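FW: tagging you since you asked about this chain on Friday. Here's the raw sequence from the shared folder, copied in full. Didn't touch anything.
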Amino acid sequence: MTRDALSAEEILRKVHSIGDYYGFIPFASLAARHKGSGRPSHSSEMPLLPPLDPTAESIAVFLKQCVDAGLMPSPRQPLFVWHSNITPGRNAPRVAQIQFHAIGTDRALADAVVIHAMRALARDLMKSDYVIRINTLGDKETRARFARELGNFFKKNSAILPEECLTCARRDVFEAAELAIERRFAEHLPAPTDFLSDQSRKRFEELLDYLEATETPYELAPDLLSRSGGWGEACFALTHEDKTLVWGSRYGELARLFFKSAMPAVGAVLKTETEGAKVFPVKRRARLRFAFVHIGDEAKHASIKLAEELRKARLPIWQIIGLESLTEQMYHVERLNPPYLIVMGRKEALEHSVVLRNRATQEDVAIPIEHLTERLRSVA
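HL: got it, structure written out here
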């Protein structure tokens, strides 16, 4: 059973918590910090955009807010951020939107972390386990090949397809394919994964490897299509009883229009009804006691799996799983200044352990992962 309208305060509490454990910073905090830095912000005009679906339009609005706030992610300093249309002090919107974004990184790790964060949020809010459905339409080259095959499909099957599908295909073959799937005439539709470029195939396999390495259940969904001009590469949805709660995808071409240069980006949007009452400020949890830094793919896999265990234990931990640079991770650690640092490299990940450092005394203690929650509770 999924829930109906939710409290806006409950939504914000959950997303703040999940943001800390998976490494997504509130956009409002980033914008305020940038404003307080004295660096100039400006209001830009919305660039000329391709046709977008409503979810892509909401991401376009968010990207404009990033540019207006002066936030400029890059491969050296990628941006992991969450954003919501819920504003304390105002009435909650009828439909709340929560967005998770990783901008500036092309690694499949970013896609995996966005998926994990959204899955955790969906579980917490709806009290149901959502199915992760995933597909890819690949890069521009792949999408062009797939579009041609879809056009051929509609021509070859014109005698048996509904007229509305054929009419739609003359305008947009991706929209027509979605309509054919909805009308249950999609048995012989071509699969986009049959037309992937080598680069797109490698990217998709890397994402699936991350999901499998973190023991994340998913199903391949060849009928999951992204027809909007804003999407590219892998796309995914979280569904329950045929209802979609979350949609996510890569959107690098859309991001490039705002940042004026190549900008890899992946994001996801959760939409749910709220009770509509006035939103009161959310009381944040106690000062963070622990920061968790990790180096290498093995450590990233382990940290993703540990995030839920540590969150359920209500241990005050911060990490940015998607940041690969130790220097960038330590920059945030210095700013937050927690008393303890948890460190995991490849060696520790293979040994199923971490190093707990008391930052005041610089004392290091090796802790087996199976005893980590107990040990952290003893010093929390």
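FW: The first strand starts at residue 25 and ends at 26.
HL: agreed, and The first helix runs from residue 8 to 22.
FW: great, closing this out.
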